[in-house]
Amino acid sequence: MLSTMVDPFDSLERAVSARVSLRPADADLLRLSFQRVDVARRGYYLRPGETCSRIGFLAAGCLAASESNGRGEVTVHIFIEDSFVADYYSYLTVTPSVQSIRAIEDSALLVADRQAIDRLYDAVPSWERLGRLIAEEVYMCAHVRTASLMHDSAEDRYAKFVNDRPELVARLPQHVVASYIGVTPETLSRIRGRSKQ
């Protein structure tokens, strides 16, 4: 799968250009700043206790961020192609992460460490705007998910997930979907059974 994908740097350039304008020299600098990292299915991009010191761009595959709540792992974010990947709280505060970010599928990322990101901020005028736009995207996603967990029934959360992210229904294991919408796998099975009737 990963060997036949389009050039990940082309994907990165397209994703950045969709958000901000890039000069030709900026695109060259992107290629110099990011390195390819492959993460095998079930492998870790970030382990709990590590400080997140890099930002990744997911060119192919799927990753899930989760946190332990004392009773098990809770999926807090799902990354798919063209996502920027990090535990942003750990990255911004330079503190150990409470999250793990693991590959649901074999995944290919382009990764830049903190020093490379800082050089981009200094050298590429639109990079500051890109950082703000990504922060807004992360905040909106977290807000929508938190509001849904607080106000929607389990059935409504599942229906919204299927409606908003249909491409993930077949890609994610049932326990990841259940964790993301805040139910047990058994409850999700019952909800899915009722939705097919």
The general outline is elongated
Instruction: Please describe the biggest sheet, giving its number of strands, its sense, and whether it closes into a barrel.
Output: 4 strands, antiparallel
CATH domain fold name of the domain at 2-125: Jelly Rolls
Strand arrangement within the widest β-sheet reads 1-8-3-6
Give me the Rg, rounded: 18 Å
- Number of helices in the DSSP assignment: 9
CATH class group of the domain at 2-125: Mainly Beta
Sheet-strand content, in percent, reads 15-25%
Q: Estimate the mean pLDDT confidence.
A: 92
User: What order do the helices and strands follow?
Assistant: HHEEEEEEHEEHHHHHH
CATH architecture of the domain at 2-125: Sandwich
Helix content range: 40-55%
The total strand number stands at: 8
Indicate the structural class.
alpha+beta
Oligomeric form of this entry? Answer: single chain
Low-confidence regions: none
The CATH superfamily name of the domain at 2-125 is: Jelly Rolls
State the distance separating the first and last CA atoms: 35 Å
What does this structure look like?
The protein is of the alpha+beta class and 197 residues long. The protein has a domain at 2-125: Jelly Rolls, CATH 2.60.120. The chain contains nine helices and eight strands. The strands form two sheets. Strands 1-8-3-6 form a four-stranded antiparallel sheet. A hairpin with a 4-residue loop joins strand 4 (62-68) and strand 5 (73-80). Helix 2 runs antiparallel to helix 4. The longest helix has 25 residues, at 127-151. It is elongated, with a radius of gyration of 18 Å. The chain starts with 7 loop residues before the first helix and ends with a helix.
